[in-house]
Amino acid sequence: MLGKHGANGTEMLEVEWLFSFLLLGSFIGFMAGLLGIGGGGIMVPVLTTLFLQQGIPVKDVVHLALGTSMASIIVTSISSLRAHHAKGGVIWVIVNRMAFGIILGAFLATFLASSLSSVYLALFFALFMAYVSLQMCLNKKPKPTRELAGGVGLFMVGSGIGAVSALVSIGGGSLTVPYLTWQNIEVKKAIGTSAAIGLPLSIAGTLGYLISGWERAVPDDFIFGYIYLPAVLLISSTSFFTAPYGAKLAHKLPVSILKKTFSMLLIILSIKMLVAVI
Is 244 exposed, middle or buried (CB count within 10 Å of its CB: 0-12, 13-18, 19+)? Predict the structure, then answer.
């Protein structure tokens, strides 16, 4: 149990930690609004560092960071979905066809994550973030060369996207948008549809991390499964309010340069997390 290794509810609720979660949520929300990038790439390595400092054992720390990050994405997903739906940017037929695969893949992947060591999870996370960072730096988009896949194809792809997204705790946009663009879906609608898919993905992933880590839950520490509730509430509340400010600045700042800088930050944070758990 997590609480037997040094961390306890009182220590984890000290003002300095609560302030850290508020600050993290503010930054994540702002960057999500500015660059259209989910917060998992930042949240997981930063939460890993914070949890280690709070006394969470290495063997559980990445799992707790992944679960807490996934739960924090739910609120952001709802806000993003509503915004894109209002602009008619969601293709609901695709959402409906991919949703079950997304849910199944994300839910089952959390049980795979619970069976892996923190080192392997951190390594997979670092490699995936390297891929995301390269994609951002090159700004390379797949050419639309195919017609949209049928129901079975979308289910299979959804399962894969859900599984990988749950293992690295992201909303799936880094995988869904390129795939839909390749399937001849216009970019803006691909982004909107991906945002809608992020909601069932984050809910399924959260439930999976809650259940797969339930035996390690310490209710007195506000840790339920692999989810630390105070961090979820504080990160969600501040990211919700700062995202619009980032969106407003997106039209005034050199976003292409910011994306390259941000990609370097992702790689540095991922490497730092990997070193911390080895």
Answer: middle
List pLDDT tens digits, range 174-198. 788 888 888 888 878 888 888 889 8
Tens digit of pLDDT for each residue in 210-260? 999 988 655 556 899 999 999 999 999 998 888 778 767 766 777 677 777
Residue at 200: amino acid letter: P
pTM metric for this prediction = 0.85
First to last CA, the chain: 21
Domain count, the chain: 1
Give the residue from 157, 198, 166 showing the smallest Cα distance to 37: 198
Query: For the CA atoms of 113, 118, 120, 124, what is the dihedral angle to 10 degrees?
Result: 70
Looking at residue 54, its amino acid is Q
Q: Which domain holds residue 238?
A: 2-277
193 with 176: CB under 8 angstroms? yes
Angstrom distance (rounded) from CA 230 to CA 56: 15
Instruction: Give the separation between CA 65 and CA 73, rounded to whole angstroms.
Output: 12
* CA neighbor of 262 nearest in space, from 193, 176, 171, 174: 174
